[in-house]
Design a protein that fits this description.
This protein is of the alpha/beta class. It has helices spanning 2-29, 33-45, 62-69, 133-140, 159-172, 188-204, 217-221, 225-228, 230-242, 246-326, 329-341, 347-393, 407-429, 432-435, 447-450, 458-486, 495-534, 537-574, and strands at residues 50-56, 87-92, 97-102, 105-110, 118-122, 146-152, 176-181, 211-214. Strands 3-4-2-5-1-6-7-8 form an eight-stranded mixed beta sheet, sandwiched between helices.
């Protein structure tokens, strides 16, 4: 039966290694070196014994505790000043030897039977002033299977020790056993007070049933096993680990640590998703604002065009009445007779004067309306830009650029958004962005004139250019058409026909003018809107890439979590 369990455990180890490899590849994909290093370390430790990590403050008695636990008074150096200046990983070996792994880590091999099932890591004090040691100790914590936190019995309340406890418990959710060392220096009532104090501290920090032992390494090494307190601790270790459960517990411990890493990665992905959702909503609001302001500006242009058409109609009707009166019997007769003596008295010269006055009145009347109304449309277009600018400044940041895992994407987003804000501000302040060729149909009569405009005043130029050109067209048509009819007029008998033709020319001109004004203004407004929207190109590319990445990353991580959960459950059932 034992052989079958061992075979199964080897299969679980192999599967767990594969899962860790997939997770390491995931961390490489998101460029998070720290998580990748921890996962690689976990993968390497699968074949190692169950690992105890001994932590505590300097002079709490950690080294003496290890010596007593392994019944070897010379294993870890003990002295009045701090001696543990490196991490020591103590493992089983057929002969005693020491390997220098790095300036901060050495591996000690000892032929102690208990080390066949466990490895012990002795760490620098949590309050040590020796550089790098706390950092190195923290790097060892994720790969540990059980933390033994050693306190000095006389004072287990030092802040630096409990700060380190917070790191281990909150950051990694490690299984922790508390040991009050040097109990021989305390009387029983005071020792109990401090044990109760540690229990209360631990419970407040989220450990429901703290496991606490009070021991004396000195008494244990002196052979006073009955009073040293080590017997209950060894019984615990035997029940939990060395009694044939070490391999299973090791796999469970690695699985739980990996699940903790997965949880952090998933929380990070959730933040990224929240940021993406906020950015998509932001872009939706920007698009809506552009559409709304574009619609308002178009309505404003419609009002302006309507006013211009009203001015057009007043002038058109005024000259229709004049034409009707001027072509009655006696005025025509008078001009016909007068033309015999002077060309200036002819119908032709009168018609030329008529169209010239018509042209001038059109120009002055419509320019007056342009001057009255153009500011409303210009302000509407300006408001579009200022609204977008304000929305950008109020965009929501959820994924901070100093995020534990995804700081890179947070920083990239922040940089792109900052560039966007700066570029948009520059866009609003550059006159050429509102006047350059391309904002209106360059094939039209307005194209050349617009390029000479100044800022939002280009709206007035569009209106003036279109109306001016169209007025020449209309009055030219009147001169030609009416002139042709007048050439054969006889004593006002064709007056109604001439007036009808005049009105027809004016109606056609009105329709063309209204259509061209509306088309040019709509095109200008749409071009401004498109230009504003194009400022978001890089931001939109980021959103698109992020949406694609998140689907792939989330599916990948969910798959790993399911497989890891199945392995963990299988190992637990094998115990």
């Amino acid at each position: 039966m034992v052989k079958v369990i061992d075979q199964k455990l080897q299969e679980y180890k192999s599967e767990l290694k594969g899962i860790l490899q997939r997770l390491q590849q995931f961390t490489q994909r998101i460029s998070h070196t720290e998580s990748g290093r921890i996962i690689a370390d976990l993968r390497d430790r699968i074949e190692e014994p169950y690992m105890f990590v001994i932590v505590g403050e300097v002079k709490a008695g950690k080294s003496s505790f290890i010596n007593a636990l392994l019944e070897d008074p010379d294993l870890c150096a003990v002295a009045p000043s701090p001696m543990t200046d490196t991490i020591q990983q103590i493992m089983y070996g057929e002969t005693y030897k020491i390997e220098e792994i790095s300036p901060f880590l050495k591996r000690v091999y000892k032929p102690n039977p208990i080390l066949k099932d466990i490895a012990i890591v002795d760490t620098p004090g949590t309050n040590t002033i020796i550089s790098h040691h706390q950092e190195i100790t923290e790097r060892f914590i994720p790969g540990s299977d059980l933390i033994i936190f050693v306190f000095e019995s006389k004072n287990p309340y030092r802040q630096s020790a409990w700060d380190f406890f917070n790191f281990m418990h909150e950051e990694w959710h490690k299984k922790i056993v508390f040991v009050l060392q040097q109990k021989d220096l305390m009387d029983e009532p005071d020792l109990k007070i401090n044990m109760d104090g540690v229990k209360e501290y631990a419970q407040k920090k989220g450990i429901k049933n703290p496991i606490i032992f009070a021991v004396s390494a000195k008494e244990e090494l002196q052979g006073l096993q009955q009073q040293s307190g080590f017997e209950p601790l060894r019984t615990f270790i035997l029940d939990q680990v060395t009694g044939g459960k070490a391999q299973q517990q090791k796999l469970i411990s690695i699985s739980e640590t990996t699940l903790n890493i997965l949880s952090k990665l998933q929380s990070g992905l959730q933040l990224r998703q929240q940021q993406l959702d906020a950015d998509l909503q932001f872009r939706k609001e920007i698009n809506k604002a552009l559409e709304d302001h574009s619609t308002r500006s178009n309505k404003q242009s419609d009002i302006l065009v309507e006013n211009l058409m009203a001015a057009y109609d007043r002038v058109s009707n005024k000259y229709a009445d004049e034409l009707n009166d001027s072509l009655s019997f006696f005025p025509v007769l008078k001009r016909s007779i007068g033309s015999i003596f002077s060309k200036s008295q002819s119908l032709k010269s009168w018609l030329e004067d008529f169209t010239k006055r018509l042209q001038n009145d059109f120009g002055s009347g419509m320019q007056e309306k342009i001057n009255d109304r153009v500011l409303d449309l210009a302000e509407s277009i300006q408001l579009m830009g200022h609204t977008i600018d304000l929305q950008m400044r109020n965009s929501k940041t959820i994924l901070a650029n100093d995020h534990e895992i995804f700081s890179e994407i947070g920083q990239r987003r922040q940089n792109i958004l900052r560039e966007l804000r700066e570029a948009f501000g520059q866009f609003l302040n550059r006159t050429e962005n509102f006047t350059a060729t391309g904002f209106v149909n360059t094939d039209s009569r307005v194209g050349t004139n617009v390029a000479a405009g100044s800022g939002i005043a280009v709206v007035g130029i569009i209106l003036a250019a279109v109306t001016h050109g169209m007025i020449f067209d209309v009055t030219g048509g009147v001169l030609t058409t009416v002139g042709f009819l007048l050439a054969g007029i006889t004593l006002g008998l064709q007056r109604s026909k001439v007036v009808r033709q005049y009105k027809s020319e004016m109606d056609k001109g009105r329709k063309r003018l209204q259509e061209e004004l509306t088309k040019e203004l709509y095109a200008y407004i749409d071009s401004i809107k498109s230009k504003m929207d194009s400022q978001f190109t890089k931001f939109d590319a980021l959103i698109q890439q992020e949406a694609s990445d998140l689907v792939s990353l989330t599916n990948n991580l969910n798959s790993i979590q399911i497989d890891l959960g199945n392995i963990r459950k299988s190992v637990q059932n094998a115990i």
